[in-house]
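Quick note —
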Amino acid sequence: MKALPACITCVSSGFLCNSCQKKLDTGELTEFELDLAKDLLELEETDHENFGFLKDVSFYKAIDYEDVVIFVIGNKDKLRITQELIDWIKNTYKIEKIILIEKTNKPRPVVESLIAPSKVVSLNEIFLATGDIEFKAVLPKSDKNNILFTRMELEDLILELCGKRTRIEYL
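Predicted structure written out below.
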């Protein structure tokens, strides 16, 4: 794999260096991410025929949100990841739904991935008097019941995934 949430040595051995241990202690890294990264490395090495593409994939983060897991992957990695891998992860970790999000600091692709198949009506930049910039995402009110997350959950996830404070409104 091109990138992992921890050092490749730490993931392979199961013993964490000081840097990775600090990430684990502060919550920047989870046991789930370590286990998944180790399993993905093993898949890449042992089943090269079916999962050889993993050598070109980056895996940055996994957010376990009840029955939904959000995977933050590298740019253009959505095209490389097969349904076979998604099914394997679902079966191995007993996950109902997986959302793949490419790593970015832009809120639009993150919002679109989290609410799919719903669409964003508009996304506007708001310049605050403090000099800060926030975003306002307007979503269709008719899709409110189809979106997996509440307004507050969406706002928290967007902040965690791209570092941009985004207000969600339904129109």
